[in-house]
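Try this one yourself first.
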């Protein structure tokens, strides 16, 4: 999902391409996970609250890593999250929630204290660092720029792509024996 402020002309232009992306729809295709004001954030979070509440209730004391589908939120205006139903889950996600959040700010010092991994691209320096490792252990990045028109063209090309959900848990099995690879149970069935 994308959360931005439609009253900010830069944000409005930067995120206009997202409406074409097929993966911005809820599983039932009734809600687009794009919010550009407080009311829309409330609507999106209301729909998602049912899903996340079920995920927490279904744990029964066990942690299920990587529930599907996994939700990615890109938030360009943190103020739109204030006092929202899912603010804590979005700002400090746990693996069992199935949420990843990318917060965009002008300065990394404006990020909340819960942020652990930071990508800095401020025109002076492009780097990645983990806050617990400190700024001494950084990895330089080469950031390529993409125009709004290029994003719009890509999104329009992708708009007809149907996102198929993975059935089952989507995990790769630890082991697969020879017979299972050929879907047989005996040597005679191989012929």
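Now uncover the answer:
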């Amino acid at each position: 999902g994308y959360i931005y402020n439609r009253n900010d002309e830069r944000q409005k232009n930067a995120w206009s391409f997202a409406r074409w992306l097929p993966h911005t729809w809820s599983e039932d295709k009734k809600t687009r996970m794009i919010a550009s004001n407080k009311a829309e954030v409330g609507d999106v979070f209301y729909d998602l609250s049912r899903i996340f509440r079920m995920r927490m209730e279904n744990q029964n004391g066990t942690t299920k890593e990587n529930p599907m589908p996994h939700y990615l939120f890109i938030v360009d205006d943190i103020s739109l999250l204030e006092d929202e139903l899912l603010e804590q889950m979005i700002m400090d996600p746990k693996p069992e929630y199935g949420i990843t959040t990318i917060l965009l700010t002008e300065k990394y010092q404006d990020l909340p204290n819960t942020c652990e991994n930071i990508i800095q691209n401020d025109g002076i320096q492009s780097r990645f660092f983990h806050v617990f490792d400190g700024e001494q252990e950084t990895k330089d990045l080469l950031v390529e720029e993409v125009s709004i028109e290029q994003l719009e063209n890509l999104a329009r090309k992708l708009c007809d792509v149907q996102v198929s959900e993975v059935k089952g848990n989507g995990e790769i099995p630890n082991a697969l024996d020879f017979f299972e690879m050929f879907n047989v149970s005996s040597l005679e069935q191989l012929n």
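Discussion: The first helix runs from residue 9 to 14. The chain has a mean pLDDT of 83.
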